[in-house]
Amino acid sequence: MADVDWYLEHFDAPAFCFTPDADYPLICGEKGVHHGLFSSKPGLAGGALVEISGGTVPNAIPGRAEAVVAVGAEALSAAEGIALETLGNGLTRIVATGKGGHASLPAGTKNAIDMLVGYLAANIDLTDDQTVFLSLVRQVVSTTDGSAVGIAGSDDTFGPLTCIGGTIATFGDGHVEQTIDARYPTSITGELITARMAGLAGEHDADYRLLSDAAPFYIEPTSPEIQTLLATYREYTGNMADPLVIGGGSYARHFPRACAFGPNEPDSANPDWVGTEHGPDEGIAEERLKNALKIYIVSIARLMELDLP
User: Fold this and answer.
1) What is the pLDDT of residues 104-131, one digit of tens each?
2) Chain centroid offset of residue 162 CA
3) Tell me: the pLDDT tens digits for 281-308?
4) CB 238 within 8 A of CB 295
């Protein structure tokens, strides 16, 4: 989204705009998005725990996490979702397989980092420092509503906060990093989340660093711009659905007045080859894309007729 920031530094913001990178019928609000990083002190990895890793991006619940331990596989217990791979030289790779998903929609997921850290705590002779830091990791990844880290909350507009731990990794000096992704309503602020995470890190002899934070974004659904888009959508689809708020983020939040407007219909079927959102083979049915083009052309024409400030 850096191109949007550049644009707004060099040009006046439009009176209103919409972004076609989300769902229909229309998204008039987006939760705040907070990304941060817990870091252990150097030399945490060592002894029985050689390294630990998991996840691919901070804003997704990891479906896989693994650790290399200096313990023979024959000495380790079997557990659901845990696979053991002998590497030789007394080393074993422990692989936890959960169920991944987007950070903003954690229902039905199972964080593989949580599974792995729980297994390590029960089966590996960890050092005191490892035990302390991994207990912090477990707090971050064990729930998805922020309750374990003291930031749970909700409001009438955006609903409940979500909070997940997306990635864990070991680095060359032996320190371990765990990311956090919180999608928050107006019941809390990004500054308060940072303060609480920093306090939690201090209790576990670790550091916390804010990576990014964006406040909740909302435009009233009764505004003439929103009503214009909504009326056009309903006219061309026959769907009388109401505006939505989401936990995801679009570039609409960068503008003073904007919203996300289609083109995806969440309940409509896609061709068999279409993959998941932000994944391989992401796509949309051609017929729906053509209808979206009609909706956008008519919507822009009607927006141009409004008397906007």
Assistant:
1) 989 999 999 999 999 999 999 999 999 9
2) 9
3) 888 889 989 999 999 999 999 999 999 8
4) no
CA 58, chain centre distance (Å)? 7
How many angstroms separate the Cα of 276 from the Cα of each of 124, 223, 245, 284? Answer: 36, 33, 21, 10
Q: How does pLDDT run across 186-225, given as a tens digit for each residue?
A: 999 999 999 999 999 999 999 999 999 999 999 999 999 9
Write down the pLDDT at residue 278. 64
Residue reference for tokens 């030399």? 43
pLDDT of 270: 85
Q: Show the tokens assigned to 86.
A: 């002998």
Q: Which residues contact 75 (CB under 8 A, 6 or more apart)?
A: none
What is the chain's Cα-based Rg?
23
CA separation (Å) from 226 to 45, 74, 202, 248? 53, 62, 45, 19
DSSP codes, 110-146? B-HHHHHHHHHHHHS---HHHHHHHHHHHHHHS-SSS
What does the angle CA 107 – CA 250 – CA 100 come to, to the nearest 5 degrees? 30
Over range 178-193, report the average pLDDT: 97
Output phi, psi for 58, to 5 deg: -65, -25
pTM above 0.70, yes or no: yes
Tokens read off for 257: 């007045």
CA-based end-to-end distance of the chain: 25
